[in-house]
Amino acid sequence: MQVELKLDSSYLEPKAIIMAAAITDEVEHALKILSEDIPQVISGIRDEKLEVLEQEELVRIYASRGKVFAVTEKGEYTLRLRLYEMEERLSGESFVRISNSEIVNLKKVLHFDLSFAGTICVKLADGTVTYVSRRYVPKIKKILGL
């Protein structure tokens, strides 16, 4: 994506214009970032106490039994946001969706095992083993440069 900055003192407020032939994932991502007013605070409930969670501490976020959970090195928290809302709040550089029900922190991945046919096994820093669903394998391979 080409980026151009023009400084003009007649503009009292910043203005962004995106010019593209079609709406792509890259364009949608840029639009989301530029128009985002969502607070980036993530809070979770554990032992009936609400705690603010730092993105760097998150190992994975997953949905199960109609609830969304966040796993950190301190433990597991229940979140009040849906998985897609968490995906919007999380840094796109560190977090990646690996299935319809799970997002992982790339900085907490110990290794990816590519020996499974059609899927990828992911070993996380907390010892959790999870799998990339077939639908998300091409995206993960692209991120890994494969």
Task: Describe, in plain words, how this protein is organized in 3D.
The protein is α+β, with helices and mostly antiparallel strands. It is built from three helices and ten strands; from the N terminus they run H-E-E-E-E-E-H-E-E-E-E-E-H. It has a single domain, classed as Beta Barrel (OB fold (Dihydrolipoamide Acetyltransferase, E2P)). 17% of the residues lie in helices and 35% in strands. It has a five-stranded antiparallel β-sheet, covered by helices on one side. The two termini are 21 Å apart.
**CATH T-level topology:** OB fold (Dihydrolipoamide Acetyltransferase, E2P)
Structural class per helix/strand content? alpha+beta
- Please state the second-level CATH architecture: Beta Barrel
CATH class: Mainly Beta
Largest sheet: 5 strands, antiparallel
**Rg to the nearest angstrom?**
18 Å
Q: What is the CATH superfamily?
A: LytTr DNA-binding domain
Which descriptor suits the 3D outline? globular
Indicate the percent of residues in helices.
Answer: 10-25%
> How many structural domains does the protein architecture include?
1
Number of strands: 10
Q: What is the beta-strand fraction?
A: 25-35%
Strand line-up across the major sheet = 5-4-3-7-6
Summed up, the helix count is: 3
What is the averaged pLDDT score?
87
Low-confidence stretches: none
- The topology string of helices and strands comes to HEEEEEHEEEEEH
Distance between the termini: 21 Å
